[in-house]
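anyone else get weird line breaks when pasting these?? whatever heres mine. first is seq + tokens for prot A
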Amino acid sequence: MFYILNKNSKDEVTFKKIINKINGLVLIFFYVFLYFFSNNFIYSQSLEKSDCEYLIPMGNILQIDAQLKNIIVRNEINGCPLKMGDSILKVEDNDINSYEDFNYVISSLTKTDDISVLIRRENSVFCLKCDKNALERVNFNNLISGFATLTYINPETKEFGAVAHSINIGTTKKIPIKKGCISFTDNLNIRKSSKGNVGCINATKNNVIGEFDDNTTFGIKGSVDNIDLSNHKKYRVAEVDEVKLGKAQIILQNKSNTCKKYNIEIINIEKQRKPDSKGIKIKITDPQLLRETGGIVQGMSGTPIVQGNKIVGAVSHALENNPTVGYGVYIKWMLEESH
């Protein structure tokens, strides 16, 4: 049984007032809820975004050691179609996964010419014909080692980026890496750059700090272990359109084995809308760095570029005819390539 209100005029007015008050309270509660919910949502989104937008620029000189997925041609022989940087995939339909595989197959061959060799050159895979004598004279390797600079470490994930360009051999770019490691170095020995001659850095390998297997267009990517980052400053990742002409700094390890800021000038910027190299053109202006290196040297690839409180990019190339001038890649492109 339903209870039905007695609808005289006075009761009806009172009832309408009660309903109006209830509707008003509900409306107020709704707006308050919407305000706090939207603010909390935006705040949590900005926190999540902020965590991904801060990196620690490093500048340490690294020794990079890597085992390649395939054996690579390291020299060229007259009369042999193989070129430096070619990856050997098969010989006479036999898979080649190591130098031992190659030696075994070659030593087992009974024929001496028209040997079928399947190779990868840049982005193409095709077959060549070689004679046995030439194949026995070609030098192969599936290990590489060199020096470059540690660009950044993500303080949250411990992911790192370095080099700022792919590891290449000959004409082959982005050589597939099976596994690699990076190590800190000390006892730097720098051969200075001069006009027409880009110098280089050599150093003594120290402790291994991380591993990688990703060789991208804009450098190697991996993760680090057992590194204390508590005394390192975090910098915000600059958007491409936030990079400005004028004063900036690079962070680089010196002969005292400390990472120091050196003054540079950003003299040109390309407003790139998609990932590409050479977006930033720089000039070394710091007198101390010029005395020590003569400009940009081999081994500085990956050196972080900072401007104010932002990390904006990394050094990638030097101009041979004027090594005080070089190019950098935007940090945004290094990060996008890693994802």
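and prot B, same format (seq, then tokens)
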Amino acid sequence: MSQFQKNIIITSIGHFLVHAMTMILPAVLVLLETEFSVSLISLGKLVTIQILFLGLGGFPAGILADRFGSRAVLITYFIGLIISSVWLYFATTFTMAAIGLGFLGLITGLYHPAGLKMVSHSPNVSRNMSYHGVAGSLGLAAGPIYGGWMASWMGWRTAYLLPGGLALLGLIIILAYHHESAPKPKEFKLNFTVTKVHLTIFTVSSLWGLAHHGLFNFLPYYFTEAVQTGFGSVVGSGFLTGFVLLLGIIGQLLGGRLGERFKRKNLYIWVVALNIPFLVMMAYYQGWYLVGITGVLGAVNFMFQPVNNSLLADVTP
């Protein structure tokens, strides 16, 4: 096995865990509400803490990867996942859970700049980027499915503990098989130009992100109240959310193809606008009609990412 193939295994494990571990929380919100006797607003605070610290972790991650190398950042990432999974396993209070989820968000925020940098140095970059993307998409869908099933079987704490074992495997592989020369120290310069077009894209993507995370973090909770699956509320809602997120993969692929064929500025408007009627319909339907509407919304919603990223690249020198 070549060094590049080992790198793909390392980054695939890392990318899978980012999305799988952060999507456990939506599947177990109902259980946390019951155990800690908290309101829906308090559950929203938990979700906000995880997402907020994920964003904060991503901010310095690229600088750290350039200064210390991808290997050092990914080692820190895997160790952090292990610590957060153990912390959450022993969490006995709402405050402990909030601290653990904040730390989990901070650690998962480290991954993408370092992981993408490692993949970008491999031959056949496009092919390996696709493998990397598939691993993340599988993690996104597997998170609520696994989280709902494991939480119903052995409790939500165990649902967080077991992925720590996969993180340990990733840590062992990167320590044993990945060797990277230390990057040469460079003078740090922060130089960027932001135009009105950039600000418009940033504003739209921020609002989209608010709707996106609000939707998918509370979708399992919504499914427990609106859909009867016959598999138990937590397990059923987790599987349905995973199904919707799998359809999101189709949306990503479709968004990429459409972005190659049509003017991306016009496509950007349509992709954002198409979310609105399906979000409105979700408020008026229940049962399997709701599942169908949400499935289409999942595909439409994930079309945004490739179109947004391509449009940003178009306007950035």
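btw re prot B: The chain is about 85% helix and 0% strand. The CA atoms of residues 141 and 195 lie 36 Å apart.
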